[in-house]
Model the fold of this input.
Amino acid sequence: MTESIIHLKENNYYIEDVPLDKLCQSFGTPSYIYSKKSIVDSFNKLDKAFNNYERLICFAVKANPNIAILNVLANLGAGFDIVSGGELKRVIAAKGDTKKVVFSGIGKSIDEISLALKHEILAFNVESEAELYRIQDIAKSMGKTANISIRVNPDVDAKTHPYISTGLKDNKFGVDEKKAIDLYKVAKEMDSIIIKGVDCHIGSQITEIGPFTDAISKLLKMIDTLTLMGIDIDHLDIGGGIGINYDDEKIFNFDEYASAISRLFAKRKFKIIFEPGRAIVGKAGILLSKIEYIKKGQSKNFAVIDAAMNDLMRPSLYNAHHEIVNTSNCNEKKDTYDIVGPVCETGDFLGKNRKLSISPNNILAILDVGAYGMSMSSNYNSRTRPTELLIDGNKVFEIKKREVFDDLIRYESLPSV
Ligand code: LLP
Done:
């Protein structure tokens, strides 16, 4: 069982200093609730592990883009890894520093590149030759220079779910080392391009250090070749991907990761950039949901709850495991249930074969949903999305209001006759 951010005190579950039943009474369910302390602690732990390096942690906005969460991280000195103009605008709205932004993604549009140039971001992580030419052209036309890294696809197996593996040669991301060297040569001759670094990101929810060190070794070799060619870099961006323990995975050790990297770096000196998402916010969030019905099927028991796959997609999409805790007082008798939502799809489940003691109206906490929870939610089945709360000690901040029906049809209209 994973360690969790909720704890029992006198028969009540709390997040930080706030009882969960109070949050349900005031804000209803389903609700995403985040612990600020958990976010700050994870950030500081990673940062401290690398305190012998010049470093910048660029939080991967896609993991949890709520501007209040980004603001917490900006205040800790974080930079940001973005993959769209929308994410850049969120960083700005959150009072983040655009000069600490790296821009990843294979489909950067002209508008997105122009916006990023206007805000003088730290680096574009360039994913193709065509993108390099596009950035050069736009920067030139704006009378600006663009800082770039080439995203290298080192062809290492991250040993993670195939949908979230990105560093294999069959994946659509980055370019191979040989192509990267060719692109650096081209970039060196471009008058509006400044070579800043080398970038890679090999996948997500990686629980072993090996895939990272395999990738970094390959990149260091490549950097040595670049140095011989007279191309120097300021930073190595080693991407995100650090996994967390959802179930019985072992806890990723930041200190071991730091010493492994230090052995590989040997005497080489440049700044390290990280792009973690999940490792910073994953453990910090829970989803509270009420049990609507208990349904005894022919061969299974179902607990039908008021959250569904549209609120938390990870179980349906990746068969991902999230621990589920009944936070209401309950008797001891446990049964085995599939925890399912109201959406009309067989794939709409939040947990399978869970041994729980539950009754209607009990409140379940689905754990470890701070990353890729709300950020991947949708309005499928015309469901309004949950509220989001940030807890700081005994303070509760409603950082996103629950959607209402009018939000769903705001941009729709009837055909005029
Ligand atoms: N940098 C780049 C370029 C990325 O594509 C990603 C994630 C990250 C950093 C952050 O990765 P993290 O540290 O969070 O592993 N929806 C999936 C995860 C998709 C990750 C996509 N890229 C899930 O729920 O598991």
Remarks:
- The longest helix spans residues 210-228.
